[in-house]
Amino acid sequence: MRSDIVIISHGVHLSAWHYEAETDDLTTARGRPCVVMAHGLGGTKDSGLEPYAERFAAAGADVVLFDYRGFGLSEGHPRQVVDHRRHREDYHAAVAHARALPDVDPDRIVLWGTSNSGGHVIAVAAEDPLIAGVMSQGAAMDGAAAVLNVWSYAGPRQLLRLTAHAAIDIVWSVLNRRPHHVQLAGEPESLAAMSADDSLPGYSAIWGPSFVNQMAARGLLLYLLNRPVTRAKRLRMPVHLVIANYDSIAPTSGMAKVAKRVRGPVRVERLDVGHFDIYVGDPFEQTVKAQTEFLRSL
């Protein structure tokens, strides 16, 4: 039931999959709901997200799962630039595409995000009050806190190294040179955006064939400006949050603040797992079951 589609975002072709609902359980006279999904920090649609999309489709929702500009199979240059502003623009483009799909109810668009995109969906929903619901898991809600978190598990030297490489990449971008890359996930003490003990084994367990384990270093400084927690008060639609209590990457305090600030109904599920555990095994089953129940309630 999955087909390849193309979404246009700011003149660039985004690679996406459209899953059609497998049942009519959620269909009304106006059509079916549609879940719009994308991955986190540098992730691609083939990196552990298919099982979620398949479950939502089995429950009776359409799903649009896409890659950001410059990532995976999407077009766009320069490649591997993590920029929350562009990513959110791509989410908005995917939402517009979803609303125009045959048999989809344009008033029942649901945003789903994980890790970095778990924050994006809060910001995107804040800009689009017609979003019917939001699902966010293991989310980075405060970029400044996430960057400072590197200090807590890797020390000040690592943070200084990453900052220096980010500065080099910014200079290169001004000179129109190719991006200067660092690893997305690496071993402890390696030059990587994520180098906690579980980063490399956790990410490598889910990354797919189109995933590239690198990002333009400038994204580390851009990340300081990514603070979706400040937008949470604008949300009045239902929100479902999944917090990984032992998250080494995204500080859980940000999600707790979002839960308090959202003005619509909020469901919070806490799991005693790490950042990457949520994609596999029992944590995945528990999470996707709760998310599917949330979807049915909208």
Question: Quick recap of the structure?
Answer:
With 298 residues, the protein is of the alpha/beta class. Helix content is 36%, strand content 22%. 50% of the residues are buried.
CATH topology (fold) name = Rossmann fold
Helical content class: 25-40%
CATH class: Alpha Beta
Radius of gyration, in Å, reads 18 Å
User: What would you call the structural class?
Assistant: alpha/beta
Number of domains: 1
Number of strands: 11
Please tell me the overall pLDDT. Answer: 97
pLDDT below 50 for ≥5 consecutive residues: which ranges?
none
User: Largest sheet at a glance?
Assistant: 8 strands, mixed
Report the β-strand fraction as a percent range. Answer: 15-25%
In N-to-C order, the SSE pattern is: EEEHEHEHEHHEEHEHEHEH
**Spatial arrangement of strands, main beta sheet:** 1-2-4-3-5-6-10-11
Distance between the termini: 23 Å
Question: What structural keywords apply?
Answer:
single chain, 298 residues, Rossmann fold, 8-stranded mixed β-sheet, 3-stranded mixed β-sheet, 9 helices, 22% strand
Structure description:
This protein has 298 residues and is of the alpha/beta class. The protein has one domain: Rossmann fold (3-Layer(aba) Sandwich). Helices cover 36% and strands 22% of the residues. The strands form two sheets. An eight-stranded mixed sheet has the order 1-2-4-3-5-6-10-11, with helices on both faces. It has a three-stranded mixed sheet with strand order 8-7-9. The radius of gyration is 18 Å and the shape is globular. The model has no long low-confidence stretch (mean pLDDT 97).
